[in-house]
Specification:
about 220 residues, about 0% helix, six-stranded mixed beta sheet, six-stranded antiparallel beta sheet, mainly beta, flat
Length: about 220
Amino acid sequence: GVCPVLGCTDPTAVNYNAGANTDDGSCAYSCTSALAYCENFDLGVGTWTNNGWINDAFGTPSSGTGPLDDITGGSFYMYYETSGASGNPITLTSECFDISGLTAPALSFYNSMYGATTGSLNVYVNGTLEWTMSGNQGQQWNLAQVDLSAYAGADVTIMFEATYGGSFSGDIAIDQVCLGEFIAYGCTDVAACNYDDAATVNQGCTYAGANQDCAGACL
């Protein structure tokens, strides 16, 4: 007979043992690079592990809640159907990501939290709550960004959790989940009243009125 040589027998694993003839369950795999990673859910959940979210296009079945469409128009997103309180909470968990190649790592995503009984949307990174939002935020898609600098150089797993708000009018949706460099949003126009010298992407400049200063006083 042939004596068993224990080890990892999967050649795709980082600890593959060419000399092993019996797999001992020790196989380990490298995490997916986070460089330029985005998931739009247009082809389903991709590599994410889903526990209760629904892949949908256009509006959700209940009136007065949910988005009208996905963030780009005409495609898909993931959402929590709260009619009948199916599942509470529900979760969507990513694969492992290697963010060591990012200088200022960040998670960005769009969310829609529209309805009179909207619950909470939580984002966990390696099991730690890093972002949360509760209640009605309007029917539009809202961009959110989570600073991952505390995890720089490490591997991360992302989990989205949605909770029930008490009735059918609490659908919560997410779309366009991306990992990349942190973006400092703000006003980049030095002539604006709310100019932010730390901002790298222009968003939301305000200006003084005619013959007024930024405080609204007459000049």
